[in-house]
Amino acid sequence: MCCVRLRFVCKLPDAMEIEKLDIYNAKSGKFATSLYGVLKTTSTILDVKKCVQLHKGVLHPERQEVRLEQKGKGLKDEDTLEKLGIKSEDKLYVKDLGPQIGWKTVFFTEYAGPLAIYLWIYQRPWLFYGDKGSSAPISLCAHIAAGCWTFHYAKRLFETQFVHRFSHGTMPLFNLFKNCTYYWGFTAYVAYHVNHPLFTPPCDIQVYMALAAFLLCEFGNFSIHITLRNLRPPGSKERKIPFPDSNPMTLLFNAVSCPNYTYEFGSWMAFTVMTQCLPGKLSGMFALCGFYQMAVWALGKHRSYKKDFKNYPSRKAILPFLL
């Protein structure tokens, strides 16, 4: 949390109109510091963050969240003090978000791990299956499952580098360890059983039908990511209401706010059917845990869309007609 004593002049251009701005600790609500004669009404929230950082170097702008109320919503960096109605003698609350890490670094770490771990276990190392494990025949289903897993995470790495445009530059460092535990742990769990010498695959027709569904959902997920990317100009944080385009896979926008999560869940359910792992076991458990987290994200984004856009169309969050 922000607990600094700040009594100096920030050298911001033409910053003379706000005589005093009190900064409070967003956690405790106690007074933390004041900014004296350093800001204009045209100054932005980012300017406020830079002032705090000049005194408390560890509190770089990405690590701060500025609020109008102690338990309020974080303000946007580009919002001006004038737009927010902030005048001299007013107060703002600053929260220390803790150590941060870039989103791209997070995604590369989260996704490279499952790719490497699955392919390693796919080779049946003696550490998991003993010396005789590598000599046992590998079923066609296990080969296809390895291909699907590789394709999915290779696609995620490609999208991280070339497709995604992030509205926030960083996230809390602690989340990296939490997310990696989820992705890497479930990867090892699923890969161990699907590649086990005693694994019994379903019939070929079931495998091929599930493979078709998996690829369809993967293409749908990629299509949604491209559509969302095109809504945000490079280097901006602009938000628009997403609508279907000429790609028929984007028609799901008519039913849900976050069809990328819908397709993602569909991919993993198809993988579950392909490997014949019932819900609650193996990849089915991975799919359901993933769906729970994606549903939480989707509901949050859905509420945000409805709050930010008064003309937002009638949709569900992630499952058409249900959720």
Describe the overall structure.
- This protein starts with 17 loop residues before the first strand and ends in a 15-residue tail after the last helix.
- A hairpin with a 5-residue loop joins strand 1 and strand 2.
- By secondary structure, the chain is an alpha+beta fold.
- Helices cover 47% and strands 10% of the residues.
- The longest helix has 28 residues, at 204-231.
- It has two domains: 18-98, Roll (Ubiquitin-like (UB roll)), CATH 3.10.20.90; 101-308, no CATH class.
- A four-stranded mixed sheet has the order 2-1-4-3, covered by helices on one side. It has a two-stranded antiparallel sheet with strand order 5-6.
Assembly type of the chains comes to: single chain
Tally the helices: 8
| Topology pattern, helix = H, strand = E | EEHEEEHHHEHHHH
Radius of gyration: 24 Å
Number of domains: 2
Strand content: 5-15%
Helix content: 40-55%
Please describe the structure with a list of short key phrases separated by commas or semicolons.
single chain, 323 residues, alpha+beta, Ubiquitin-like (UB roll), 2 domains, four-stranded mixed β-sheet, two-stranded antiparallel ribbon, 6 strands, 47% helix, elongated, disordered N terminus
Question: What's the structural blueprint in terms of helices and strands?
Answer:
Elements: E1 18-25, E2 31-39, H1 45-55, E3 64-67, E4 91-96, E5 100-102, H2 103-122, H3 126-129, H4 140-162, E6 170-172, H5 173-194, H6 204-231, H7 259-275, H8 282-308
Parallel strand pairs: 1-4
Antiparallel strand pairs: 1-2, 3-4, 5-6
